[in-house]
């Protein structure tokens, strides 16, 4: 009879045998307070090393100082590294205090320290070797230094008590088996700079329920998860432009979901542009698909055989829908398409194969019915209905009853197919901003002041003709604190929505804990649509400008200081001869209007490091530029909105 060995056991035993062969044979240079050190080649620093003569020798609470004195030669040394295997299998050690001078932690430095329950890694650490904390079964939480860019193989493998992990902001690579066997881990957030996740990174994470993928992923190995990750329910996908998987089997979520049918919520982030090929194929546990307004492409078989899905929304920015994208969605009852120009959209004829086109209602923008009825594959649908913007209860008219329906949905009381229609401003979410958008529709304000100028810019960005709240190009319009969506009487920290009363007590949009309330950070550097004065007031197609969009404006247009109807400002002229006027506006500080000879406009980007400020565009008699200084976020500046090309 043959015995089949557990893969984790084999990996552990192999590593143990390897370590036994490579244990250092030489003694340490000197010892101070029970800790062994080797002098580094620079002659000024030392590395904590293993006391091989009496290993394992460390127990209890260990404190490693920033500097040590060698009584043998009378020299003081700075402690900069921990050697490989330095504390290997010191099972009686319960905590370690590391010095702020530490730069490197070596391979397997703390492996199998099964009693280690607490360790704080200083911000100075730049590299951590593979398997450094493998088998630390008492370790409950870990916060890794922000400068760390790689998590090496097996780093936290078999840390069965690890339940809280804070990954570094600028992390780029998560290598193989990093969290393999972390059975207490329930949620993990992959930072936005991560580019790759390796084999078995979350193997046997049996209680992992939710994972958030960052914005920059380029490569995800097909075996990141295994079928034992049966608790996985919620995926949040923030990756902006992932190029897709070769086929369904190379989708890392497919392996776990195929066996367990466990994924019931797949959420796409608000910056996602591409829905990758095969991303949710055969996810029969999904009941609805919500696609954010930023998406321009839905990939091949992206939602094929999602047999539990009843509702889908397709944003107006979508220009490409791939082969069999929604094939086999047999339970569909409602599709909400916001695509206005079908002639500029490529939709494969197989996109809705075997979907319930005979019973599903396809809701389309007002005035597009005939196009949908005569354009394949949309013409396959037997029930196509023009949707009045703001008709949240789908009764064919926009009245106060729609406000009630929208409020019911916000309160969690609405449970029907009309839920997608509650996204009145088309930003892919249902928030209080939709209430504002709906009131504007009811009051007849939905199209006022929304004209734009095409300056022939390389990106195709369109600039609004006038400021938000203005009725002509030379008017100042409304003033907004950065991240607020309504004007007010007093602009200071006591009235600012995202702080507890001062510049160092921020509660949202903070990447430096020195300015966060009780050390708060969320590393958000761009305004969410619901906090963007342009999107909230004019709809999801509008945004406050980015730094890149302002750079493009300044670099591709001439800018003349002039007057319009007696108001000074800058007249930008594009390569196509079109013009854009930005008037002087000043800024509101407290209840005062100041600097009225300058034009000052908020951008949507936070100031790096100093989170109390944000970028702004300056136009004046002697200069045009964009800055990240001078103005507190609580200051009132004007907003000139932008939108993507038509």
β-sheet strand percentage: 15-25%
Oligomer: single chain
Cα distance spanning the termini: 70 Å
The outline comes out as: globular
Major sheet characteristics: 7 strands, mixed
Total of DSSP H or I helical runs spanning 4+ residues: 7
Look at the helices and sheets and give the structural class.
alpha/beta
Global mean pLDDT = 87
**Low-pLDDT stretches:** 1-26, 445-449
What is the share of helical residues?
10-25%
**C-alpha Rg (nearest Å):** 29 Å
Task: Report the count of strand segments.
Answer: 41
Structure write-up:
With about 650 residues, the chain is of the alpha/beta class. Helices cover about 10% and strands about 25% of the residues. The chain has seven helices and 41 strands. Strands 1, 2, 3, 5, 6, 8 and 10 form a seven-stranded mixed sheet that branches. A five-stranded parallel sheet has the order 22-24-26-28-29. A four-stranded parallel sheet has the order 12-14-16-18, with no helix packed on it. The termini are far apart. Residues about 1-25 and about 445-450 have low confidence and may be disordered.
